[in-house]
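TEACHING EXERCISE
Course module: macromolecular assemblies
Task: Read the component lines below, then compare them to the predicted structure of the full complex.
Student: A.B.
Group: 4
Components provided:
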Amino acid sequence: MKVLVCISHVPDTTSKINFTADNSAFDKNGVQFVINPYDEFGLTRAIWLKEKKGASVTVLNVGGNETEPTLRKALAIGADNAIRVDAEPSDAFFVAKQIAAVAQEGGYDLIIAGRESIDYNGGQVPGMVAALLNWPFVNACVGMDGEGPEFNFTREIDGGKEKLSASLPLVIGGQKGLVEESDLRIPNMRGIMQARTKPLEVKAAVDAETKTSVGSFSKPAPKSAVKMIDAENVSELVQLLHDEAKVI
Amino acid sequence: MSVLVYLESWEGKFKKNTWEAALYASKTAEALGSEAIGLCIGNLEDSAAEAGKYGINKVLHLNSGFESFDANAYGNAIAEIAAANGAETIVISATFNGKALASALAIASDSALLSNVVSLPESTSPFTVKRGVFSGKGFNLLSTDAAKRVVLFVPNSIPVIEGSGEASVESASASGGDATRVQVQSVDRVKGKIPLPEAERVVSAGRGLKGPENWGMIEELAEVLDAGTACSKPVSDMGWRPHSEHVGQTGIAIKPNLYVAIGISGAIQHLAGVSASKTIVAINKDPEAPFFKAADYGIVGDAFEVVPKLTEEIKKFKASN
Ligand SMILES: Cc1cc2nc3c(=O)[nH]c(=O)nc-3n(C[C@H](O)[C@H](O)[C@H](O)COP(=O)(O)OP(=O)(O)OC[C@H]3O[C@@H](n4cnc5c(N)ncnc54)[C@H](O)[C@@H]3O)c2cc1C
Ligand SMILES: Nc1ncnc2c1ncn2[C@@H]1O[C@H](COP(=O)(O)O)[C@@H](O)[C@H]1O
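Instructor-supplied answer key:
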């Protein structure tokens, strides 16, 4: 089994988000970047497949060379090798085309991506990859078991869960549950040392259209000051929710 | 030219966010000077005609061959129907299935995909929408010049106002193409619960509640408010509540009219998924809790005293109104 884990390189969850002075772009100044939290679950799951079933694990990012520390971290966690497609990830379609091309060329049969990236929250890339390759797609995946080539999955749906099965080759959009939070791997000293010498291949992008263009950014309107209500006077809150907020 | 809207149903029933999608589509069609057509899939009662109340005159109904959800098969089928009906814009509500479907559909119909959309189109040439970015910490205008587009919009983004009228329902057919489908074994929906993304009111609790045995009062408050229930991440990590209730940056992002946060500190990652709520109430025993900075109304107090009182007061209020 050849597993391709898609890693997006995103601002740390504690980042304050700012835009450039003309609001045309995200201001990366002083921002710490990390492996997209959803992708960490997929990466750990892939490493299990390596340890238990002898799968090979490649991590992939479409991005500029600033993402290499993120890929090195994934190698330190336990991936065998990394690929960076050297291009600006201009939109989901462009990125999906790159991932599909790498998957086809490299003969991968399982692609694990995250449910969404926490930067643009698109949640589009994995489904597009599946459609481009015409492989089954398991989105919002919260559980996986089996030996392969057939696997059983649990997937989140509105108001519940769905159990399904699918056979390789396939694409997963994963999240917590693929492995538990407490099972997430963090790099240890030995892993960090080994990661330095693991292969990180840089590939040129294949031709692909960018179908969308990004305009100006803005921030949510600031909240007006909180109204504090005395704990002894809860009925006042109920009145305010009715009269002022009009939500009950 | 037309706008096609996917009218998602759950066990043969439509929900509020289906009608929100219908309304979104009819308003978009108005802006584009075209007409909006509905498409529903599966076994349905007569309720599809209700789309007429939201500006849809015609609903196509695809019945056989699509008993269970598969992103690629549904994507291929809807692309086929869109082409047959000259639809250049396809509207989908961002439910779990909707999100998976939108990606497949964008590829199958060679459309641009505009996702995480939170407004009606700001302009139609180029087609421009506002989307949420950085988990609620920002917005961005996204445009496309592509001839066709799929708009995936976040539930609770536009007010749903019921009009009048009845849509005609016509049967349609399409193939799922050559997609290798996933095999759905079972679907398990929690009965009587309001799914979080579409809930208009949400009562949420955190580690301040001390243990899962104390959620009775949370559920009672949710019941009188006709609200969904949610929780902070550590609460679901510890298994006090199911993972599906976890809201925030790495959980579900929601934007209800009312969000009541009880015993939740208000960490940046939690706020990222809930700060788009229209009205926020925070109840916390610590006057310095960061949640008070993000809230509209706050009560400093012990949840074990305040919550039962609040439930009583709402009951009284409802009885007298
Ligand atoms: C990568 C990453 C992603 C994350 N994603 C999320 C996410 O999506 N969602 C999320 O929620 N968190 C997320 N977190 C975790 C987040 O940082 C906080 O740790 C978490 O939100 C805290 O949960 P809490 O408020 O329930 O608990 P605590 O921070 O422990 O707060 C408990 C609160 O309860 C109050 N309290 C205690 N007793 C009472 C009482 N009797 N009555 C009233 N109030 C009381 C306390 O004053 C305190 O404010 C993430 C963290 C990381 C690192
Ligand atoms: N630039 C990228 N390089 C590699 N993988 C990506 C990239 N962007 C998105 N992905 C993958 O697709 C998932 C969903 O991302 P998105 O569709 O951007 O929300 C992420 O969790 C990643 O696994």
